[in-house]
Every structure is written in C-alpha cells, then in structure tokens.
C-alpha cells in the first residue's frame, strides 16, 4: 500500500494548483480521473476491416439527418471498441479540460519522479449522482424525466452507442490503479466493455423505475458537439490492473432507482432543450 496517493478531479487550473502543492511532499503515486470524451468519436472500421483513427461527421450530414458515419465513398463505417491507442480528438471544452488534466499529471510525474496513472472513465452511473442538473449525464437526465412522468428526450435517432460503468467498479479501478505495480505511466480505459444504444438505456431505466409504458421521445435533431459512438476496449485495464467489471447496466439499476425515489428529482430537461435551441446548438 502506498503511503501517500492522490485522486485528482475538478478543473485543469485546480489540478495545476494541487500538483504544485505536492512538490514538497512527493507522493508515491497520483491517479487522475480523465474521461472518454478525449477520444471524440470512438474507433471505426471500414467494410474491408481497416481501422480508422480519426473520423468526424460533417455538419451538412447531420443537418440532413444522416446520423451514421461513412467513408469518403459513402459506405457505412462500423463502430468498434475504442482502445487507448486511438489518437485524442477534442470535440468539446470539457474534453479539452480533461485532456489537460491527464497530461498535467503525467508530465508532473515524469518531472518529479512520482508514479502517475490516468484513468479514462466512460459513462459512470450509480446512486448518488446529481439528478437536477440536465447536463450531468444521460441516466440522471432520463431518471429526472421519468420520475416526473415525462418521456426521456433522445437526440438523433437513439441508436448512438455508449459504455456505462458502475461507480463501484470505478472505485475499485482507482484502488487497483494505486496498488498495481505496472500501472504507472499509463492511460487506461475504465468501462464495462459493453455497448448500449441510448434507446436501450431509456427502456431499461423506465422498466427499472416501474414505468415501462413511458417510451422515449426521439428528437431526430442533433446536439452540437455530440458524438455518434464510443465504447471501451478494456483489455489494457484487465492486463495492467486485473480489472473486471462486476456490475452490468441491465442488472445494477436498482440502487440508482432507489436513490432517485428517495432524493426526488427536478426535471429540467425542457429547460436544457430550450437553452440549447436558443444558443443555436440543436440542428
């Protein structure tokens, strides 16, 4: 067990201040919470199996309702699990700040001889999430809508895919990252290793909350900065950390639903939609 360790989150300025404060203490190891958002779109492959590192949708495609990514010849690309070798593609301010945090920690570790690890977290869920902030995450957003008898609002066609990892698995991953000897110097994906469409997520949650009759509202509109697909390849976490997810979305929603019922949730989904439209961020 390491005598001094730090788990860093927050913004990149706060990270810099905290790292400066550590210089005199020289902790044994630092683990920083990064994010899958740094990837932008996840990995894709062509019809002949060639993997593509960097792909983006063009604005004219999105405005025409062409949600799926295609190659230069117009052929559909297949989303595949994203590993840590995929180059980053910063498509939002949030992604920029998370990438800055992980680089700060890794550079600090190299400069001062401190062991450093960056965990790129995918979509974390579980009891204790903020429920009244419409930007906090898709599960919290959907739960707030369902708890108030409203249909979850899904942008695009609902077939976009994400990876949802339970907070208990994330907590265990941090402990492993502090303990395992081969972790320092690496960025490591922490996810479930499974892909769920957003419509599947809304359906699973409605069933868990006892309102399966409330079907999601498919907007068929895009939100600026959203990606189409990104889900985790967790082979590196298995190899370096011995990490194996224990909780699946489809059988681990119970405690989250209990939290929603106990806490109460203010539905601000309509307010979020209005603000996005006023700012020209929905097309």
How is this structure best described in words?
- By secondary structure, the chain is of the alpha/beta class.
- It has a single domain (5-278), classed as Rossmann fold, CATH 3.40.50.720.
- It has nine helices and 14 strands.
- The chain has helices at 12-22, 59-63, 93-112, 138-147, 167-179, 198-208, 235-241, 254-263, 269-278, and strands at residues 5-8, 29-35, 44-45, 51-52, 78-79, 115-121, 123-125, 153-154, 161-162, 164-166, 187-190, 196-197, 217-218, 229-230.
- It has a four-stranded parallel beta sheet with strand order 1-2-6-11, sandwiched between helices. The chain has a three-stranded antiparallel beta sheet with strand order 4-3-5, with no helix packed on it. A three-stranded mixed beta sheet has the order 12-9-14.
- It is globular and about 55 Å long.
- Mean pLDDT is 89; it is low at 1-9.
Strand content: 15-25%
Number of helices: 9
Written as H for each helix and E for each strand, in order along the chain, the element string is EHEEEHEHEEHEEEHEEHEEHHH
Distance between the termini: 51 Å
In CATH, the architecture is: 3-Layer(aba) Sandwich
Mean pLDDT metric: 89
* Count of extended strands: 14
Properties at a glance:
single chain; 283 residues; Rossmann fold
Detail the topology: elements first, then pairings.
Elements: E1 5-8, H1 12-22, E2 29-35, E3 44-45, E4 51-52, H2 59-63, E5 78-79, H3 93-112, E6 115-121, E7 123-125, H4 138-147, E8 153-154, E9 161-162, E10 164-166, H5 167-179, E11 187-190, E12 196-197, H6 198-208, E13 217-218, E14 229-230, H7 235-241, H8 254-263, H9 269-278
């Amino acid at each position: 067990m390491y005598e001094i360790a730090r788990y860093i989150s927050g913004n990149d300025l706060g990270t810099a201040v905290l790292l400066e404060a550590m210089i005199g203490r020289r902790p044994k190891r630092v683990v920083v919470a990064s994010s899958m958002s740094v990837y932008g779109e996840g990995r894709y492959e062509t019809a002949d199996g060639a993997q593509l590192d960097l792909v983006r949708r063009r604005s004219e495609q999105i405005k025409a309702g062409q949600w799926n990514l295609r190659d230069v010849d117009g052929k559909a690309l297949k989303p595949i699990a994203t590993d840590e070798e995929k180059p980053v593609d910063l498509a939002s301010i949030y992604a920029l700040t998370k990438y800055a945090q992980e680089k700060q920690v890794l550079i600090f570790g190299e400069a001062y001889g401190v062991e450093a690890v960056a965990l790129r977290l995918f979509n974390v869920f579980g009891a204790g999430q903020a429920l009244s902030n419409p930007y906090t995450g898709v599960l919290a957003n959907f739960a707030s809508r369902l708890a108030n008898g409203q249909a979850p609002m899904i942008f695009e066609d609902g077939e976009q895919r994400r990876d949802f990892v339970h907070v208990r698995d994330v907590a265990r991953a941090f402990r492993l990252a502090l303990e395992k000897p081969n972790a320092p110097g690496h960025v490591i994906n922490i996810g479930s290793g499974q892909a769920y469409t957003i419509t599947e997520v809304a359906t699973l949650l409605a069933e868990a909350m006892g309102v399966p009759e409330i079907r999601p509202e498919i907007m068929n509109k895009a939100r600026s900065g959203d990606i189409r697909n990104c889900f985790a390849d967790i082979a590196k976490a298995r190899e370096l950390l011995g990490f194996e997810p224990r909780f699946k979305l489809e059988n681990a929603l119970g405690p989250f639903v209990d939290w929603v019922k106990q806490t109460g949730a203010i539905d601000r989904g309509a307010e979020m939609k209005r603000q996005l439209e006023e700012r020209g961020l929905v097309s």
